[in-house]
Structure formats: C-alpha cells, structure tokens
Amino acid sequence: MAEAEGTQPGMHGADLDDLRDAARDRAVLSEARVMLARRLGVPPGEALQHLIWLARDLDMGLAEAAALLVRDGGGGSA
Questions:
Q1: Is residue 43 part of a domain?
Q2: Model-wide pTM > 0.90
C-alpha cells in the first residue's frame, strides 16, 4: 500500500489523526489545569484532581471537560 504524502513510513492517515487528536487533548488539558490552578489558588496537580471530579460530575470525558472549561474561560468572576 502506498503511503500518504507527508506521512511517516508505516503510519496511516487514521493513525496521524489519532496522534493529532491526542496532542490537542493534552494541550487543552494542560491549559485547563493551569487555568483552574490559578483560579483556585492550588498547585497544578490538585487542579487536575478538581478537573477529574468535574468531568465525573458532568458525566463526560476528561478532555471534554477540559475543553468546556477552556472554551468558557473558567466561568464566574475571579
């Protein structure tokens, strides 16, 4: 099978899409964690735990909850 132009040997378009999605999720998660840490005045690790609780309470995935938080700018007032 011919490789798609601009891809690594052995990598397929779906694999690259998965890698891009994972990188995007990590970036959003990191941004949400920092945003939450600043807002709550807690270390990033504790902010991550709050984000995990939020995702669980909203019955959604961690990346989805992080994206919601980042999109809404953290909500509320500082």
A1: yes
A2: no
